Automatic annotation (TrEMBL):
Domain of life: Eukaryota
Gene Ontology CC: mitochondrion
Extent of Acidic residues compositional bias: 505-533
UniProt organism field: Sporisorium scitamineum
Stretches the record annotates as Disordered: 296-317, 497-533
Biased composition (Basic and acidic residues): 299-311
Residue intervals of the DML1/Misato tubulin domain: 21-235
Biological process, per Gene Ontology: mitochondrion organization
Name of the protein: DML1/Misato tubulin domain-containing protein
Amino acid sequence: MDIDSSQVLLSAVPKQRTTKRPHRFWSDYSRTFFHAKSLVSVGGELGAPMPGSYNAAHSPSNSDGRIRFETFSQGTKYFSELEAQQEVLDTNIRWFAEDADLLQGFQYSIDTSDAFGGLASKYLEDLVDEFPKLSHLVFAARWGNTQSVPDEQGEHAAWENRLARLRRMNNLQSLVQLMEFSTVVTPLSVPSWQAGAQVGADWRRYLGRIDLGDMHHAAALISAHLETATLGTRLKSRSETLSLLTSRLNWQRDTKLVHLGGAIPIPYPTPLTTSSASYGASSVDPVDAMLSSNGYGDGYRDSRARQRGEPLESETDLAKRGSQLVLSSWLDLSLPTGLTGSKKSKQLLYNFSHPYSHAAVLRNSNLDDARLGLGMLDTLLTHIHPPFGQGVYIPQSYNILSSFPNFFTSLDAESKAITTTNANSTAKVTKPKEVPVLSSLSVTPSSVYRLKEARETLREALQGHIPLAAYGLDAEDARDALKETRELVEGWIDTYSVDNGGDAGGDEDGDAMGTDEEYDVDQKEDDGLDWDM
């Protein structure tokens, strides 16, 4: 795989590397053998995917006359057609449910940026109605650009802006439906390489050769954390069931929005040695040096302890230092991609360290690191206690398949993370066979950023000058439905902001739609609504 070797983006951030992207679709790199009842074709020969939903290049000139599967409403309408033609619920899904020996629940992976968000939402609604006592864990993934570009940026700017508008509205509508019917929902976004607010300030260190614009690379990163975070529910001697996991995360019953994050590979700290501990000898205070030479002071006691073979660092201190290394490389995959700023990074780190609930899984085959790993887990979960917080250690590292891209950097000959500051963060390394991973599902106040993004989409649609049809909304009551959605989103924002004085984001929320006067701006005299009380 050829890699672009250009380097400089910012003073402290190397430029993201890009690949030639030999894989167009997920089926080009998937190694899964599917059951005959697993795959269901959608759309037929007259349908086509939404442009930008896979790695292939797109432009308006590539249109071949087929119907693009690109709006939420298309997906909801196609649900009825698909069930009438193939009876997927009864023929496929029910067959697997009845064949299961011990059915814990349903885990969904849904693309919310195109019409599949609407299609999957309808299936979720029916399955919740059919299996109301089971847990329904949803991972809602978005893909593609959602930011508008200036009209003068290129000849296809208007076309790109149209797709970005549709994706924003699709993500919003999917989020609302999934929040209503699922037990918990985890939004997934590919992080921006340039964004500095992803919890860990040094998260690029061990992923220096990743191309986040390549679906192959992005899917590998997210799938590693998704599989690890839910691994405890699939073990033969499992630590918890899917129902217990979702109950722990949403114990408040009104915090369904969950964050997926983690560190891959895990940077373990190197225990201090006599040589590494003596690096600060030149900066010792003269008075302390004199006391030490006469058998007094901490320096003398430390030297005597070293002579007796005592460790230079307690297990607690080593675990604490290890947890700091993990936090520095932590990547939150559920945050909006546009978060920047050091102040916001500090707020995100605080929110992550003080969650409402937290379920973490550390997997590593090297049992020599087991005690240290458990100590690091305990340190990360200091501010959350059982049953709302739980850490699980699994002695099985994440297996790197041949189809997994080698985007790792700063690994030594044994495929362990190098924690020294002089490591080259862009040099290619030998592809490891397995790596230790720490992944977690957590409910934190940082969810308010995702909800504020949804509120901004609502504001744009309701107060902007672009017709709602441009957002893929063709129903007669589309505006009224958006107003009801706005009420829901505002309520969710209040839920996740209550512990931070109404501002979990750490900055002024002056754009909130909180007063009757502000809500009146989009009301028209001929809208058929009677506002007289």
